[in-house]
Amino acid sequence: MLTTIIAAIVLLSIIFYQYFRKRNSFFDSLNVKGPTPALLFGNLGEFWGVPIGLKIQQWTQKYGKVYGYYEGGTPVLVTSDLDILHDVFVKQFDSFHGRKLFPLQPNPDDDIMASIFMSRGMRWKRLRTIANPVFSVANLKRLLPTCEVSVDNFMEIMDERCQLGKPFDIHPYYQQLTCDVIARVAFGEERDLQRDPNNPYIELCRELFPPNPKLSKNIWNIFAMILPELRFLAQGAQDLQHKVTGANAWFVLTDKITKIVDERRLEKDGVERNIDFIQLFLEAESEDAKSTTNENKKLELSNMKVTKKLTTQEIVGQLTLFLVAGYDTTSNSLSYITYELATHPEIQEKLRAEIDEVCSGSAEITYEQVSKLKYAEQVIKETLRLYPLASLVQARLCMSSMEAGDKLKQPIPQGLTVAADVWSVHRDKTIWGDDADQFRPERFDEEVQRHPMAWFPFGAGPRICIGLRFTIIEQKIALTRMLQRFVIKKCAETLVPLRLCGAATVCPESVDIVLEPRNDI
Ligand code: HEM
């Protein structure tokens, strides 16, 4: 009996060992280099304590512009080659319309709440076609006054911080601001959430973007990464855990937002409201859930017709995503900008001069004024060049085997994830010059012709960030009000250089500054 058990254990060990070895030789078979994977974990262990985007950048320095690593059992091809990136994100979109799959995410093809972000194929096309007009110039103009209300409330808080005259970390305040803005424009929130200790969203949002994710919270995630074939077991275990300990932040948020959408539906006609995303989505709503089924196959964008209808669950899915996407990215961007302005007083002065010239004397900021803030736009672009904070999501799943770029010797196989190393591209001296690591917004002023993939903090191609114009407006309004009133100063507590952390996005550990009132007005 004992001998049989030992023999079985030995046999199983040999089978597992062979299986993991074969799995870890995927890139060898494609003749693609990369960091050596550990038998079970692949290269997961190397992400410990380092944001993934930055680890990938370090590997690029070692292995070059195309290499592969293993996220547990999932091989990921990384590239910073501009032509391959252009093929994957733009030219060959029909073969790369799916995003990288996260280990425990619901199946994007049949999740009834799938957002634009997660969906793919026909379903993505349909959701994107419906959501695009929400961010049209006409709607952005209508949303601008709502944004201003939030920024005015934010300025009151900043006034108080200024009067205290003490250093403080501005990042959590920007998080409150962007959460408030998106809650107003997405689902018509009217309370000032920035001062509300019971803000129903902020802690949930923070939970979804922890600066230093704890292993214990992600145990099922890690299990699913190591054994993707058994992810259904991890999924079941996680569901059970949620039943016992309470749902995770995403589901709590979707519950809250479902209630808001339901209440709005019951609202009588004629209630006066600022325009918001719910309103815009409800106009495109339908009960026809069947119209959402996806055909996860090669897209033929040019021949595709889409039904302009949304189900209630889809509305909730989109709103939850907008809240989460709009909150974290924009607050990080504003924090990085504040750091750069504090450490580059001459750039801050130049930006202030532009703001004074374009916006002086007007109580409200108009869309036309925002559009004239060219230097502000350069400051935002340069910040996002140095800190492409959302690089993790700049990846695609190859939906059908495809040749990409001239430098790959064989087609990219179906099912392989291709990730962009945006940090390396954005700091590449051959693209940006010897001062690539310096903060110099003027570089976006020059008439230099660059490759279309040289700067892409918002992604590229048909799946480029839908909130791009919205976030630029929001950031310009916040910067305008800040510089109209204060001088942002670095202080002994300012971490120079910044320490970066984060998981889903790369964020500054803290941005400690002092606000001084302007003495020239
Ligand atoms: C500084 C601010 C922001 C940055 C850096 C950023 C960055 C990105 C990136 C890199 C992507 C992936 C693009 C790709 O895969 O090619 C993305 C997608 C997306 N973003 Fe943003 N984003 C920002 C703000 C926002 C805001 C304010 C919203 C909504 C209000 C938003 C909504 C979305 C959505 C819905 C997608 C998915 C688009 C699709 O798959 O079709 N983002 N964003």
TrEMBL record:
Names of the cofactor(s): heme
Any GO MF annotation of the entry: iron ion binding
One protein family per Pfam: p450
Record carries keyword Transmembrane helix: no
InterPro entries referenced in this protein's UniProt entry, alphabetically: Cyt_P450 (IPR001128), Cyt_P450_CS (IPR017972), Cyt_P450_E_grp-I (IPR002401), Cyt_P450_sf (IPR036396), Cytochrome_P450_3A (IPR050705)
Family: Belongs to the cytochrome P450 family.
Function comment: Cytochromes P450 are a group of heme-thiolate monooxygenases. They oxidize a variety of structurally unrelated compounds, including steroids, fatty acids, and xenobiotics.
Name recorded for this polypeptide: Cytochrome P450
